[in-house]
Write a structure and sequence with these properties.
With 268 residues, this protein is of the alpha+beta class. Helix content is 40%, strand content 23%. The protein has two domains: 160 residues, Sandwich (Jelly Rolls); 94 residues, Arc Repressor Mutant, subunit A (Orthogonal Bundle). The strands form two sheets. It has a six-stranded antiparallel β-sheet. Strands 3-8-5-6 form a four-stranded antiparallel β-sheet, with no helix packed on it. Strand 5 and strand 6 form a beta hairpin. The protein starts with a strand and ends with a helix.
């Protein structure tokens, strides 16, 4: 995989990717605050693609689907500081800072660009990764609380995300799948995100779409790829990851089987 993670504390790490690129469809169990040191990150969510580079700060809400593609750039591997904002840590924080939480329907990732407060906070962690022992809990708690205070200062409405400890409830299956079919996740995760057990998810899916989840997902992903290649003149090597395929050869085989010609012919 070409991935390295250096933890100085269970909630603080530096992540590094050394391959040409690394793509993952992720569902984070905790909120994440990420500061990019080097390399480039492409985020695909809600049918939109965003690019970020060194110095940018990103926030990923827990339990939200997002595609993350990390690339080396300018001869430097992709490297970032990652801070996990756990439910336990947030629960302790909001026990001292009471807020009235309003449920946010579907929070998406946020970018704070190169905000100086967040940059200085997260950059100050970098020297600690040279330690040969774990960061003391008291010091880690200070740095994490500093980051949370900055987030609340520059984006007060983020309280409604950080202080919401509820689990996903049962939602409209058709609406959710139409918005998230390009994410390559186990069926159990799709079920969890729609508030269903795996058995109930498959039953409701068959009733809604008149087919199996895997067949429907493959057709939807191929249709999106076909549109991007034919209408948007994108290269197959660019789109196969974005639409939910993990392997370019498998994508080419499935595309030709569906449309009768290979994807590179569709780009002409």
């Amino acid at each position: 995989m070409g991935y390295e993670a250096n933890y100085i504390h269970p909630e603080l790490k530096i992540s590094a990717f050394t391959e040409h690129f690394h793509k993952s469809d992720v569902l984070f169990e905790t909120h994440l605050l990420v500061w990019i040191i080097s390399g480039e990150t492409k985020i695909v969510q809600g049918g939109q693609t965003h690019r970020f580079g060194a110095g940018d700060t990103l926030f990923f809400p827990r339990h939200e689907l997002v595609t993350v593609i990390n690339y080396p750039k300018d001869g430097l591997r992709h490297q970032s500081v990652v801070m996990h904002l756990s439910d336990k840590r947030l629960g302790e924080y909001y026990a001292k800072h009471r807020v009235d939480v309003q449920r946010v329907a579907r929070p998406s990732f946020r970018t704070f660009d190169k905000h100086p407060l967040l940059q200085s906070c997260l950059a100050s962690l970098v020297p600690y990764f040279d330690l040969h022992e774990p960061l003391p809990e008291a010091l880690a708690a200070i740095k994490i609380e500093e980051a949370m205070t900055i987030l609340r200062t520059i984006t007060p409405e983020i309280d409604h995300i950080l202080a919401d400890f509820g689990q996903p409830g049962k939602i409209n299956l058709a609406d959710f799948m139409e918005q998230h079919y390009m994410y390559n996740l186990p069926m159990t995760k799709f079920g969890y995100l729609t508030g269903r057990s795996l058995t109930t998810f498959k039953r409701d899916f068959k009733r809604t779409f008149q087919t199996t989840p895997q067949r429907w997902l493959t057709e939807k992903r191929l249709d999106l790829a076909h549109y991007l290649i034919r209408e948007k003149k994108r290269r197959p090597s660019e789109v196969y990851l974005e639409v939910g395929f993990e392997n370019l050869s498998h994508f080419g085989y499935a595309f030709k089987k569906q449309f009768g010609y290979p994807p590179n012919a569709g780009a002409k």
